[in-house]
Design brief:
By secondary structure, the chain is α/β, with parallel strands linked by helices. The protein contains seven helices and six strands; from the N terminus they run βααβαβαβααββα. 36% of the residues are buried. It binds farnesyl diphosphate.
Length: 236
């Protein structure tokens, strides 16, 4: 069995789901919130330690103002409906990304949830919100340069570089899932997924169920992870 501590998900297909059901795009995002609640509770029950979900990318600002505003209201919908359940299940909330551009009222809702769940010891649910991996890496480099200039650090290596990333406190990403069939990484966790296993499912995020997660984990468990070493079971 491969250990499975950290699952990251690119939750794609909300718009296509809405179109398929003749609904506005917002209905796809709304259903996506409910699915996220289900998957968080289920992943926690499976003993997964960290779940990181791509909720809003630094590129998503290019969408219509109406859609952006709606996505910015999702944390309020999510936490007002589910915070009690998240507490009961010992889930801890975290955010990764550039907080500066997020509207103050959205940030307040997220910060309240982070504070309220801060002593929980179960699964850590990280929202990648206004997150872009290139932006994260550039910021990390700038911060390191500043620390170096101030004499706080010396040489940089792979291990110490990790501490400059938003994911500093999280375990290595073992499994990256992308829904809705696209074969792209879309600027998500580029440094962190160096040795992650990828599973792409055609299921649209709003149709994603506990069984779909089981399927992804089954695929993951069928993989031989060699982390760049030689796989002894291969005949070569
Ligand atoms: C991608 O689908 C999805 C998003 C950009 C938003 C994802 C957000 C959620 C599922 C909810 C997150 C929850 C909180 C609490 C923030 P898309 O719109 O790109 O779908 P399409 O490619 O089919 O158009």
């Amino acid at each position: 069995m491969n250990t499975l501590n950290h699952v990251a998900i690119i939750m794609d297909g909300n718009g296509r789901w809405a179109k398929k059901n003749s609904l506005p795009r917002s209905a796809g995002h709304y259903k996506g919130v409910e699915v996220l609640r289900n998957i968080t509770i289920y992943a926690n029950r499976l003993g997964i330690k960290a779940l990181t979900v791509y909720a809003f990318s630094t590129e998503n600002w290019k969408r219509s103002a109406e859609e952006v505003n709606y996505i910015m209201s999702l944390p309020k919908i999510f936490f007002s409906s589910y915070i009690k359940e998240l507490m009961d299940n010992n889930v801890k909330i975290n955010i990764i990304g550039d907080r500066e551009r997020i509207p103050a009222e959205t940030m307040k809702v997220i910060n309240d949830a982070i504070e309220e769940t801060s002593r929980n010891t179960g699964l850590v649910l990280s929202f990648a919100f206004n997150y872009g991996s290139r932006d994260e890496i550039v910021r990390a480099c700038k911060k390191y340069a500043q620390d170096y200039k101030e004499g706080k650090v010396e040489d940089l290596d792979e291990e110490s570089f990790k501490s400059y990333l938003y994911t500093n406190d999280l375990p290595e990403v073992d499994l990256l899932i992308r829904t809705a069939g696209e074969l792209r990484v879309s600027n998500f966790l580029l440094y962190q997924i160096a040795y992650s296993e990828f599973v792409v499912t055609d299921t649209l995020w709003p149709d994603f169920t506990n069984e779909t997660l089981d399927y992804c984990i089954e695929q993951y468990q069928g993989r031989k992870r060699s982390f760049g070493g030689r796989d002894e079971t291969k005949n070569n």
